[in-house]
Every structure is written in C-alpha cells, then in structure tokens.
Amino acid sequence: MPKSCILIGAPIDSGQRRPGCLMGPAAYRVAGLVQALRDLGHGVEDRGDVTMTPETEAVCDNPAVHSLPETLGWTKSLRAATKHAMQDGFPIILGGDHSLALGSVAGAAEHAAQVGRPLFLLWLDAHSDFHTPQTTSSGNLHGTPVAYIAGREGFEMFPTFPAPVPPENICLFGIRSVDTAEHAALLNHDIEINDMRVLDEYGIVAPLRAFLKKVEAANGLLHVSLDVDFLDPSIAPAVGTTVPGGTTIREAHLVMEVLHESGLATSLDLVELNPFLDERGRTARLMVDLVASLMGRKVFDRPTRSFG
C-alpha cells in the first residue's frame, strides 16, 4: 500500500567530532530520494530541515562530553518533529550523525504510547551505541542513543524518555564494534544482539524474521535506524566510523526487502552519511536505493549505477 512519506532533515554533526554529517540531508535530496519514493507510488512531503535552540545551561560531570547543549537542543526538536510526523504518515529522518536517534526514537515512543502500541527498535549499525554520558571516553554522544532508549541511568540532563523501550524489544543487527564498558552493560540487559558472527553462522534473514515475528505478535510499531556503517566501507565510504566486515550490497538490500514484505516498519532514520567523505555521491545513492527497497522496489527493478 502506498505510504505518506514525510522527510525530516536533521543536519547534525554535534554528536561526534568529524564535521560533514550536517550535509547529509541535502545529499539525500540531491541523490534522488524524493523521486525514488514517488516512482514507487508513495506520497512525499518534505518538511525541510529541523532547527534547534541549544540548552545552554546543560552540563555533564564527564569532561570528555562535548556539544551537550546542541545535542539536547536537537533531541527536543526531533522528538517533536517525529511525533507529529507519525500522526500523519511514515517519517524518514535524514541525518546527520546517530545522536539524532535520541530525538527521533523518543518521538516514535511518545506516539506509540499515545496510540497504545508497543515500540520496537531495529538498530542496523556497526556499533551498539550503548554508552551513557558518564561512560563514554570519546565524549561523542552519537554513541549513547540505545542506552537512552532502553532507560539506562545517567541521562539526568536529558528530557525524560517518554516510555523506555523494553530491552527485549530492541534488536542490534550487524554490530561488530563494542567498547568494553558497553559490553559489560549489555550483559545486564536482555537486548537481542545479532552481531556479524551470528549473521555469518545463521544467515541474515532468519534472525531478522524471528525479530519481526515478535513485532507482529505484539502489534508493535517498528522504528528502523539505518547507519551507513552497517554497510561495509568498501561499498559505503562516506562515514567517519568505518569498521571492516560490514554487510554487502546484496545483504543490505535483502534486509530492506524483508522489512518491506513484513509491512511492519513505521519510521526510519538514515544516519552518519558524511558527503565530504563520499566518492561522487556513491554512498548517498546506495542509501537511497536501500530506502527504495524498504519501500517496495524489487531486486530486478534496481537501476544500473556507473561511477566511472
């Protein structure tokens, strides 16, 4: 069925230290996201880029943490924008680094609570992003969203999460880089972890379908957060947090097609695209193609790409 897709630009690079992610929303637009969605029969409303007001009084005991006022400002703005968009259609949040999920998933959770349905989270990423502002040694808040979403302590300076997502409703999929502090914390939470070892052993479809069955059985809403580094850097170079051993083009498209067939996804993040690191728009176009697969494009419909 055609969807009403609502594009929300999140020009954020305060969650990490390598500038360039703020150009991500524009890159997706230039790479043809709107036309790709319309070609599949979906309606598209581009609500432009969100703006924010920094929370200038915010402080953190961890001296490594940087850009907290800006990150809090984005969190509040994106929470409101995503919640309102979910009332009207299918939000696609164009990032921007992964700190945007602090706000986008909060907005999805607020909407889910209002309609009386549980929220599930599919985290397609090389990293678990399970730090808190107290445990991060880099100070990069793009490594904290899953901890915030799951209700970990240590986010007192953040807006209270509207309805923390139960750990068993969270699936980390494709991860292959977890810090020691994150690993220890994950052992105390019942989060479903499908790292690359699991996907290599069991294939990429079986674990995904098992998680989707849980979403369907609970009549849940499903927020999908897709990080560029879910993909192998050999095919998606435009990211500042490259980790070898990611998914191939075929595997990534398969994940998107299975999600489409399930009909369960209700909101989507596209994060960590840094166009300054791209090769002639290669990564941006690939991410647009993946969105098209999520929204109904079949394997034999994919366009030919030339980067010569």
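Second entry:
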Amino acid sequence: MDSFNSRLDDSLRRRAQELRRLTSVLRGELPPESDGHYHVANIHDRTVVIMTDSPVWTTRLRQLGPRILTILQNSGRKNLLHIRVFSRPAQSPVARPPESVKTKPKHISPQSSRLLNQAASAIGDEGLRDALLKLARHTSDRHKPENQGNSD
C-alpha cells in the first residue's frame, strides 16, 4: 500500500518541502527561544505568511518582520516584500463525559451548611443571601440532622 505522501502531487510536495526549508532557515537565524513557536505557512503574492502558536509570538515575530524578510530574501526568495504573522494556538479537544454518565450531586458537611446559613443572615444583598441559603441546602441526607427545620 502506498503511503499518503507518495500519493501527493509532486508540486504540492515540493511546496511543502520549500515551506519547511524556509522555516528551518528562520530557526537558524532568529532568537533560539522562538524555536518551535512558528512555521512558514504560505507564500502568496510576494508575501510570506507565518503562523505562531500564541499571540505573544505573533507580536514578537511582527517586530522581527524586517529581519525575517531580509533573511528569506538572502536565502533565495528575493521576490518577498511583505510579511503577515497570525496566531493559531493548538487546540486540544475538550473532554466531556459521555451522555450516559450521570454526575453525582455535590454535598457539603453540616458544619459548612451552618456557616453558610450564618453568613447569609448577615448579608444585606438579597440575591447573594438567597444564593448562600441555596448552597447551604446541599447537605447530603446522611449528614442532615433529624430535625433540621426546627431550630427553636
């Protein structure tokens, strides 16, 4: 079975190799702390496009723009006149529990419940007081005192 790369159009393969080569040229000339944070993504209409992994490196490479153009022009790309730098942070998929998994309700200890009730009684803001009282009701059944509603 052929590999994926062997089935690519030769011009596409050559273009990818050229972009990798230009990235390598820059890595040899730019500050070492920037290595791995960018790559040459495209060359279009006398403009080199560089992608970074964060806005911080986008700003830094934009500051180095004239130097980058000079480096690339000296490496055989004399037609380049402009540079565009974009940030494209690597995205990791958000882990979500399967829909079949039910989350268990969270409970607090009776002592925490009493402290929240005390704090709520001293709060003047009605919304905050109600939120604290609602939170205080999250005591699990096994922790609730027998006569919780009767505080006389």
